[in-house]
């Protein structure tokens, strides 16, 4: 069988097989190497993919390409890229073109990225996991692809355009301008945060600003995966013949390294550049089950798939993953008593779980600064606080695989929103098609993680629609227009649950209905601005958002408040926060006039409010047949920049007192006490209770001691023996 001659090696090919990681303009040039000779010999027999990473920042540069005048900034020469993944603000900061994002305002303009390559051989696919957002990709001056959804990977065949020396260029248009143009075309929408035009772009919505974050509408290669996948040139008929004789070697190991399964599957038949599918079913007898933290261990099986061909000495492709095995159920059954109240809680491996955790927003306003180490630090904070669930909020991004892998390893359940938040979204054809691609890509990527418990279609879009009758709220219409339609999900989505939105009620009533589903309980702080002592009366079946603001540490505050800062400048994103926060503090805490004193007062008040909520709602976990509250997720764990917010840890990973008060309330065994007021009675009533969320029944003696407030004496003591906490 005839085949093409072996390819000529690129000039910069070095001795790391098959490609180096020093960029396409490597200084370590090796014209000949044993690795290259091996690759050339193998290519004469068969075409094997070789992946070249494009993630070395030295390969890239930043420059302005638009002819439209800028505001304050004009780049007259190329700027080195500081890191990869990257975004325009990070690179401008590193180049000192802008000095800070924390003080005052800065107007900039989107630019373009360039990359020099030296590959000129074979079939080649260019792959990006994420371009943010409105981008055109050019190779050697020829447009080869476009993207306007930062959540959809882009793959482009580029073999026909490669030469010996290549220039790859990515041109990013202003997301602000594109969104505004689409708003003019399709009509002005409505939102709760940011500019209303944001709904027309599939981009992180918080980039347009939120009530806890700045307006930084960035652009760049935001995912840490950009590659060229190269295939040596071989006669097509030869490829077709060989593809019929390929085999897939599948191995499965237990968490302790014992091989359960190791078998080759033959008979793959496919045409070149098309997919081939094989379904493997294997039953693991008595598997080691994955449990959330605090309820069991997190064993992970090791799966490895290797694509082989008898005529080729090197594996064509290898795929390996760690997988957890668990049985997850969302329990929605009728509660005892009158009315239509329904439970809403999760059961893992037939064990009911009280889900206590936090809401997660992106860990930085500049996504390129978020790394696996960033995730690990934040998730360690969460686990150390006795929390077992994190909700990835729908106005940010679908996090990197490393986030979910860490959740698998650490035993953290994930409540995953789709990225729609607080607005009325369009439903024209191009937008719907883009959302469908997004949903398919996201679910296929995340469904394998044992930690991912539930997907929800949006954050508060239904609540938003209910607040504006002029929108013509209709449930079926909103299912199509305001988030994710269930039909967009892959047929293979069988390992988790999907709800149209959060909050969501299963009985079709308003999203604020506390009788079923999940609620966002904002009648403390927002809404009716109830005292936090009323949290017990405001319980729902599952509270997926609630919160209270507080200042960060004084050191963090000084990083964004200059001397002489006015109240208006102190309140750049959350309208009226100072007055509302002061009101809650005045009602509960006495304090001095300095920054230190007021900071402490806000933090003490936040700690008391959030611990009160958990104490009262955890009590409602109840008995096996009367789970009145299935979980509560505080808003929010983290910040994306230094600010005054609802977070329980500030941007610099400094826990606020609320973090520790919540940790105390989320211990497996806790006591609670509440004064119960009875009108027209001189008797003081105290409710005292214990909650046990462990597997072990606790028996002991309960002692209650009363102290005289003025003298400090304790003249009253009550002892209750044989107390049982099931």
From TrEMBL:
Q: Does the keyword Hydrolase apply?
A: yes
Domain Beta-mannosidase-like galactose-binding, by residue range, is 78-223
**Per UniProt, which keywords does this protein have?**
Glycosidase, Hydrolase
tRNA-binding: is it a keyword of this entry?
no
Start-end of Pro residues biased regions: 1-10
Give the top-level enzyme category.
Answer: hydrolase
Tell me the protein's name.
beta-mannosidase
- Species source reads Rhizoclosmatium globosum
């Amino acid at each position: 069988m005839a085949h093409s001659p072996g390819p000529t090696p690129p000039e910069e090919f070095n001795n790391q097989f098959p490609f180096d990681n020093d960029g396409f303009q490597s200084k370590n040039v090796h014209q000949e190497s044993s690795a290259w000779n091996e690759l050339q010999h193998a290519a004469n027999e068969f075409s094997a993919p070789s992946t070249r990473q494009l993630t070395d920042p030295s390969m890239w540069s930043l420059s302005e390409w638009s002819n439209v005048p800028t505001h304050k900034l004009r780049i007259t020469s190329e700027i080195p890229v500081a890191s990869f993944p990257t975004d325009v603000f990070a690179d401008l900061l590193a180049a000192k073109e802008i000095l800070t994002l924390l003080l005052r305002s800065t107007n900039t303009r989107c630019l373009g990225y360039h990359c020099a390559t030296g590959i000129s051989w074979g079939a080649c696919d260019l792959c990006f996991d994420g371009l943010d957002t409105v981008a055109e990709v050019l190779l050697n001056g020829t447009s080869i692809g476009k993207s306007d959804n930062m959540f959809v990977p882009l793959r482009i065949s580029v073999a026909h355009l490669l030469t010996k020396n290549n220039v790859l260029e990515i041109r990013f248009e202003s997301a602000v301008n594109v969104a505004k143009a689409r708003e003019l075309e399709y009509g002005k929408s409505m939102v709760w945060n940011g500019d209303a035009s944001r709904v027309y772009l599939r981009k992180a919505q918080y980039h347009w600003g939120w009530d806890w974050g700045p307006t930084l509408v960035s652009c760049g290669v935001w995912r840490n995966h950009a590659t060229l996948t190269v295939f040596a040139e071989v006669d097509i008929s030869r490829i077709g013949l060989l593809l019929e004789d390929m085999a897939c070697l599948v191995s499965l190991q237990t968490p302790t390294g014992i091989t359960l399964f190791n078998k080759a599957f033959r008979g793959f038949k496919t045409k070149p550049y098309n997919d081939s599918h094989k379904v493997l079913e294997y039953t693991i007898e008595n598997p080691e089950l994955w449990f959330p933290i605090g309820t069991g261990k997190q064993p992970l099986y090791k799966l490895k798939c290797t694509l082989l061909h008898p005529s080729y000495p090197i594996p064509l492709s290898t795929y390996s993953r760690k997988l957890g095995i668990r049985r997850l159920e969302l329990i929605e059954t009728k509660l005892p008593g009158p009315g239509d109240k329904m439970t809403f809680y999760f059961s893992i491996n037939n064990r009911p779980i009280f889900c206590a955790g936090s809401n997660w927003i992106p860990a930085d306003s500049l996504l390129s600064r978020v790394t696996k180490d960033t995730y690990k630090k934040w998730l360690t904070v969460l686990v150390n606080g006795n929390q077992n669930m994190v909700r990835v909020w729908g106005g940010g991004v679908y996090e990197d695989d490393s986030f979910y892998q860490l959740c698998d390893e650490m035993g953290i359940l994930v409540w995953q929103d789709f990225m729609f938040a607080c607005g009325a979204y369009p439903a024209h054809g191009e937008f719907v098609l883009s959302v469908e691609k997004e949903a398919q890509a996201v679910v296929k990527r995340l469904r394998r993680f044992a930690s991912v418990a539930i997907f929800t279609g949006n954050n508060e879009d239904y609540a938003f629609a209910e607040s504006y009758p002029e929108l013509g709220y209709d449930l079926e219409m909103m299912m199509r227009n305001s988030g994710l339609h269930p039909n967009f999900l892959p047929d293979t989505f069988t390992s988790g649950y999907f709800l149209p939105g959060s909050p969501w009620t299963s009985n079709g009533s308003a999203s604020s209905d506390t009788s079923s589903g999940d609620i966002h309980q904002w009648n403390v702080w927002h809404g009716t601005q109830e005292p936090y002592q009323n949290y017990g009366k405001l319980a729902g079946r599952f509270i997926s958002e609630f919160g209270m603001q507080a200042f960060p540490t004084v050191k963090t505050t000084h990083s964004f408040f200059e001397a002489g800062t006015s109240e208006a400048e102190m309140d750049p994103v959350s309208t009226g926060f100072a007055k509302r926060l002061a009101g809650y503090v005045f009602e509960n805490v006495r304090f001095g006039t300095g920054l230190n004193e007021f900071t402490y007062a806000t933090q003490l008040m936040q700690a008391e409010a959030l611990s009160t909520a958990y104490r009262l709602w955890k009590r409602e976990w109840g008995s096996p047949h009367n789970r009145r509250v299935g979980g509560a997720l505080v808003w929010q764990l983290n910040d994306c920049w230094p600010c005054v917010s609802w977070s329980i840890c500030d941007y610099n990973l400094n826990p606020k007192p609320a973090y520790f008060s919540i940790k105390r309330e989320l211990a497996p065994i806790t006591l609670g006490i509440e004064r119960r007021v009875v009108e027209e009675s001189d008797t003081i009533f105290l409710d005292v209770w214990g909650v046990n969320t462990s597997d072990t029944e606790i028996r002991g003696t309960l002692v209650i001691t009363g102290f005289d407030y003025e003298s400090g004496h304790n003249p009253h003591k009550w002892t209750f023996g044989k107390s049982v906490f099931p």
